[in-house]
Amino acid sequence: MACLSSEEWGIICDKFANAQNLTDVESKNDPDNDPFRSKYKARELLREIYCSLKSFEAGETEEDSDQRPEEQPVDGQPDEGICRGFSGDSRDGLRAAKLGVVEYYLGINHVETEELSAGQEHLMNCIKQLEKCRVSSENVSLFIHVRNQLGIIWAGRDETDTAQGFLETAESIYQRYMKEVKIVFELAYTHTMYYLAQVYQNLGETERAATYCHSTLQRQLQLNQFNPIEWALNAATLSQYYITKGRYLEGRHCLAAATVISGLAGEVPSEAAAQESDMESDHREQLRQKRAEIARCWIKYCLNLLQDAKKLLEDTIGELDTDCQEELKRARRHEEEEEEKGRKIALLFGSEDTFDSIASLEEKVQCLFPLDFTEARAVFLVGQNYVAQAKEYFQMDGYVTDHIEILQDHSSLFRALAFFEEDLERRCKMHKRRVDMLEPICNDLNSQYYLLIRRQLMFELAETYNEMLDLKLTLVNRQADTQSLDNHTIKKFNHLCSASAKYFQMFLDSLCSPEGKLPEHLEEEVLRPALVARFRVARLQSRLISSIPPVQLDNLNKSLENYKYVVQYCEAHPEAAPAVETELELSKEMVGLLPLKIERLKARMAVNN
């Protein structure tokens, strides 16, 4: 085979450097009407390099050709592929690697110009060249990168099994090479782990995906190869997986790390500078948005921690089970010891510069379930602080849906905290705070554009007023019977009762046709809410206090009508019964009892007349 002279090799190197400059630098200045101009020029240079290398390969003797090993596929047989072929630093090994490099960059070039099929072909040609030589320090990075790129292409086509094959082969090559040669190509392997996390997510293997994502984030910190804002948002997103699994230690750690690392991106100016460029403006806006999104993840952490604690502590009627509370408090010391053990074995984020800051932030909010009002309030205050931060960016003007979701989370924080409050008057005030923040929004929203959100708000307001009503009734029962209620108390009681019924009815009206009729068949997503709303309206109508018999009769008739609807709908649609089992049983009972009560009232009215 003819060998390249130093002059010829220098020309090839210059062309390659020019191609890289066109791709990485000049392409950023390409006009909008010709966005790939520089990349196309780079492609031509790469093709010239490839032709030059092939022309020297054409001078290979028959003896040289006979010495070339039989090609063996690496993917699917990673252990064999690593061992076969020419030595990486031999003449033939270097020649194959050089052609492989050019094929790789031609592949990347076509992918970046959105010619994926051509890009895939060049990347596969790269693999074919690499199959002619063994993995070595000169080519192992290329072995991994080309499979990473093919994994990305196939994952983008939703061919996750094929993508998995390429990426797992890349992982296998890395593991085998590290074992045998002990030379680190950590960044390429980090990319492999990152892409595998996405593939496992698409395959539904969420726990495996989370493990790979966590390891990827840790490695990026160790290698100091990360964008602070992107890294922080990925860590915050990972926290949501841990939260849904009840793993609050890991969830808190991810969020604390996200908050600290996002701070490395710098401060957000309070106002845009007069001389601010478009790029600076975009960067400032991105910082504000991503930090607000991280704040929303913190809100979910606090809310879920409180809600899961409530589920653990509530009795069969939804009140605090004090026996359970005392038992859990006695077990708290053991939980704290387990938390400390968990921290020691957990894969913690951070470097020498950030570890203390992350640990300090973690100490500001607990990861164990709050067991009393004091502990719950501490969690609530952290969540409320992040509500304020998130609302600074996601304002009603421009981010209607996001702003309302944050308000709903704030309301849910109050509801969760109220469970721990023993003073019923204070608990009622917490629910009043929920009404005050949601009612104006509900009434102002345009039903045409925000129908689903309005339905959510209507139902929540109805339930909130109902909870306040139950609390007031409990307070009244503790103080005196209903016969001795003063006018102020009766007025307050009826106001809460009517307000709850009003919002339940508004919810039901939103399901009606333009003619004002409920659909004969309720869709699955509104089936239970609609039947529960009917049941609650029936119950509320019968609870209204009045000294006027005709008003009493009207309330009872309306109550009976709604109870009948629940019973008759479930008789006509038996499949609906399991969704409202308790409500249906009580409705049947009231359909039997209320007519007797109505008749007795009519009889008294007849006697008095």
From TrEMBL:
UniProt-annotated location(s): Cytoplasm, Cytoskeleton
Described function: Activator of KIF1B plus-end-directed microtubule motor activity. Required for organization of axonal microtubules, and axonal outgrowth and maintenance during peripheral and central nervous system development.
An annotated GO cellular component: cytoskeleton
Originating gene: kifbp
Keyword Cytoplasm: yes
Biological process (GO), any one: microtubule cytoskeleton organization
SUPFAM superfamilies referenced in this protein's UniProt entry, alphabetically: TPR-like
PANTHER family per record: KIF-BINDING PROTEIN, KIF1-BINDING PROTEIN
Any coiled-coil regions, as ranges: none
Chain residue ranges for the region called Disordered: 58-83
Keyword Transport: no
The name this protein goes by in its record: KIF-binding protein
Source species, domain of life: Eukaryota
Pfam families attached to this UniProt entry: KBP_C (PF12309)
Homology family: Belongs to the KIF-binding protein family.
Protein keywords: Cytoplasm, Cytoskeleton
